[in-house]
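Journal club prep — side note

Before the paper discussion, L.F. wants everyone to see what a predicted structure for a comparable chain looks like in token form. Sequence:
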Amino acid sequence: MNILQRIAARRVLSAAVIESPDHAVPLAKALLAGGLDVTEVTFRNVHAAECIRRLRAMVPEMLVGAGTLLTPEQIDEAMAAGAQFGVSPGFNPGVVRAAVERNFPFVPGVVTPGEMERSLELGCPWVKFFPAAAAGGVEFLKSVAGPYAHTPLRVIPLGGINEKNMADYLALPMVIAVGGSWLADRSLVAAGAWDEVTNRTRRALTIAVSRHSPSE
């Protein structure tokens, strides 16, 4: 099972903004206690790389990705810290090319069919549909599914995903997983509310398991 296939197997991706490196390991352990061994650390502050280094060193069972990668330099920084995959919020061809050239598993953000096709062309068939809810959500993905059903395109929606709607997304064959920050909400992390992170994770995985994994 390769890196991205492991995300598909879990069907849930936690995206966390970690304000302090001291929160990284407790957060990872809270996610693991809930049954999830995949997380994305967003590059939204200067602590992201250090958080990734600590997770790789101290929680080796966790698959750790880097999110909000906006430049090739950030890809290099994430890889140097030990990130095992990368995610971007939008579609920047230069960033996608840099990831492909470095053989770095990468999930670029897309919001249009044109960006989906460009991602396929550049060698990234797995994409992040963001911001999912604001961009049309489930109905949008249903509309674009037909023309791409025969391609390797697979989608991870983020943005407005939560316990109430995640099952609707996971019911779509082209959706391999859903992601979001609700599992490890910034306020929960800041407060050290690890039991609540574990509870949210456990509930999300229960919902995910109720949906059959889409065929590859």
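L.F.'s comment for the group: Strands lie at 12-16, 38-42, 63-67, 85-87, 106-107, 109-110, 126-129, 154-157, 178-180. Keep this in mind when we get to the figures.
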